[in-house]
Automatic annotation (TrEMBL):
Organism whose genome encodes this protein: Paraburkholderia azotifigens
Protein name (Swiss-Prot/TrEMBL): DUF2336 domain-containing protein
Compositional bias of kind Basic and acidic residues: 494-504
Stretch list, region Disordered: 494-526
Cross-referenced InterPro entries: ARM-like, ARM-type_fold
Annotated Polar residues bias: 516-526
Amino acid sequence: MTTPARHADSQPRAADAARAGARLRRHWRELMRLALDAPDALACAMLYPHAGGAERKRLEARMFNARSERLALAACPHTPSAVLGRLCTLAAADADGTLATRLARNAATPADGLQTLAVSLAVSLAASLEAATPQQNAQRLAQLIARHPLAPPALLEKIAAHTDSIETLRSLCENVGVQADLLAQLAGRGIAPLQRLLAIHFATDARTLHQLWQSTRESAVRAQVLRHRACPNELLRTVPASGSERRSLASNVRTAGEILTALARDDDAVVRRAAATNPATPAGALILLCFDADTLVRRAVAVRDDLPLKVVEWLAGDSDVWVRSSLARNRACPRSWLDRLARDREADVRRSVTRHPACPMPLVTLLAGDEVAWVRAGVALRDELPGPVLHRLLQDTDIDVLAGVARHRGTPQATLARLAQHPSPDVRRAVILNRHAQRRVLLPLRDEPYPLHRVLVFMHPGLTDSDRWRMRFEPDMEARARMVGHLAGTLAAARERERHEQRAADGAASPEADTHQLTTTVEEAG
């Protein structure tokens, strides 16, 4: 039973909902018109996943009418997968090999679209065999599908079973989506050019790696087996003669500590550097490596986050600037040594101190007045800055320093507004990237000369949907596509919410709903 008060309350809500629905429909129609009138079809492609029925037909007519538009959309990395899937159907129907090749090369082409291309590929191969015509285009398409990361596993298995082409099999071995059992089948063929690729693939299992080790004497293949995370344990227990194999053994975190200690004394500096970067290398070996004659080995030690305090002390006095610089940025470097490094003669070392996550505030204050702007810019990039330090940096004139303070969350909005008018695009971009910039700071930046900046402004959380709607006349093709896609998604979500609310309102206003509500109230009262 519906009361008069309930009717009075629902009428304004219904009127507001009707106005909102009309506005949504009006905006959608305008977005459709802008996309259909755009000089390129990419804006239509961004609308396509959110459209339906007759609207999709209109968008398809605009996107697919000209072959040049089809080819452009097939090659574009921003094209939605729904459009790419539809293009796969058209490519198969028209036997358009160039279009199919571009689609197979596009990483966003969906699995069902690749399946469609594979069917057309089989037909094309059969036709070329009957007519004794060249098959280069079909073979190239097969290689691209075999390499595509979204290709269905069943399709990849079918390609492997029906081809003897080394290039196609090589593409299968390079596909990150290939399953371990298919890699094992490929290894069982004993094809030498594929063995190194199989040893590299992260999905190759221990049994297949052991098979590859037994079936080859190629040092490059064995080196990849030793580097692999699934390398059988028995292969990690001896030191090989080959330098490339020892380098791989030294880089494997599952290599035993005693072997890593031996490799830390290897004659090959590259082997010693690999041991220096291995987290499993024992502390005793690190002490030896921090005095290594090769500079690159000492640099590899300096970036480790598990350095003993004595090693830090030795590296802090190293003659190489990059060793000291890496150490100054390293979490393992204690505060007591940061004070010394903050007064280093090299600006790169002092800059690295400013990037240390636990740099003490007295040192931050000291380095904020450094004579080298690059060091002061490092201070400006810190998340936490004392008020006086931030104030001092705000008076700086160097572009890198100003770009740092423009991204700082503590920078006053009035200062951000001033920096938003700076002649340097780096400073203005830093203002845009500041997630704390307010709407009044961002609005003038909607007219930035750089399309990337306008897209970043468009996506900033400080703008309202109405602000973004006013940017719909974007002239740049890719920027316009990004904006149209976002607006279309927002409108589609709002329309779906409107439908849901309308269904809920209709259900609440129905006699059955009123009767149910009255029955529930009576039962609760009883």
